[in-house]
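Suppose a colleague, Dr. K., hands you the sequence of a protein chain of 504 amino acids and asks what its three-dimensional shape might be. Before reaching for any lab equipment, you can write down a predicted structure in token form. Begin with the sequence itself:
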Amino acid sequence: MNPLRDPQDRRLPRIPEPCALVIFGVTGDLARKKLLPGIYDLANRGLLPPGFVVVGFARRDWSDGDFESLAHDSAKEHARTPWREEVWARLAGNIRFVGGSFDDDAAFDQLSACLDGLRQSHGIHGNAAFYFSIPPSSFPQVLKQLARTGMADNERCGGWRRVVVEKPFGYDLPSAKALNDLVDDVFTRDDVFRIDHYLGKETVQNIMALRFANNLFEPLWNSKYVDSVQITMAEDVGIGSRAGFYDDTGAARDVVQNHLLQLLALVTMEEPTSFDAAEIRAEKLKVLRAISLPADVSAGTVRGQYLKGWVAGQRAVGYLEEPNVPADSTTETYVAMRLGIQNRRWAGVPFYLRAGKRLPRRVTEVAVMFKTAPHLPFNRTDVEMLSHNQLVIRVQPDEGVVLKFGAKVPGTTMEVRDIAMDFQYGEAFTEASPEAYERLVLDVLIGDRTLFPDAAEVEQSWRVIDPLEEAWQGTQPEPYRAGEWGPRAADEMLAREGRSWRRA
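The predicted structure, expressed as tokens, is then:
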């Protein structure tokens, strides 16, 4: 070790040990559009060791060359960083493929032999991560095969073995517990990485920097100064080809249970004692346990389903007209809810969460709405254009932070209106933000679990959603036209409390 190098200095490049990344379901959209391009981008940035190997597993009668061709085309089409053939040439020599189905013992024996051979040829020392880019229904078969062959056993392999599990983490609390138990039976808990790609976004991580690295905001971050908090995840697209998954899931299970509740936890948690995975998870879990549901679910939540309309100048069909959606489906494509947090810091502050498809535009943001000044020494007409101070954290697109406050309009009269200071990542830093999967794959290979929810967080999130799903049984979603900001009932929910949604 270099005696001048501080091991705690996170500014230095973090490069994993030689290892293999095995991707199950490597021919799917996630692997082709996110994982393989992310691997190229990591290599292009010099963040992968020479002894790094990608092993694809799928039901294809392919050679290593066939898989290398798919990986090349996928990476070149979707890479974030400039394409350099010399970088790919180095990766291409470290690509392997194993073909077979999940119930094929011989295929998994071949995979085990492949990893054993890489110990000598690439010096991976038994280090391997298994990425489950497959439906949750296939998890039991794959886990059984990994256990049977001993590929999940750290001691047998002489290195570390990790597993990456994609969301959804179950369908409800019982299924989440069953899934967690299943994975924990094969891998040790410290080797399980439940991936929520939202936590890999730079602006999500910046929530902690904004709060805990500055003395400007944290003193105001409580019920004395905060009027309400709005968390929005709006998509302008429909369900595409995901009807089979989406109609059984709905907006609440699809994004509120994971993405939005994780954002809520980061915004409201207490300061951890250190930037350590266990400490951060402990503080997030406290918040999730303190969440309170609306006393009257029908008044404190809104479910919606989009009708045909216009989005960004394009004609959009209604949800029931989407391919493979049942004509009598009551699945929500929009959900809004009012939650509370029962602790000293946040008691009395409403948290409004909303998520939906076929809304006017794509945006994810957290808006902290501060209380108005207790006394304004101006005439009423002077401040007609003045609203709440706001701190808006834009997660996507146009990542950044907006601070909205009142200022005097130039002129001979005293008129105060809202203005905004706008910080954008793309303008403030020379280096572009990495893609979420790029960052998270690197963290898996390094073994950094900071940005990965643990089993307790997942289960507690379901304890928030399950009672709402139960209360919604047998109800019809409110209609809204594609291109609108959701059903009128969502606006009325806030209007009853003297508030309105921020138009993102």
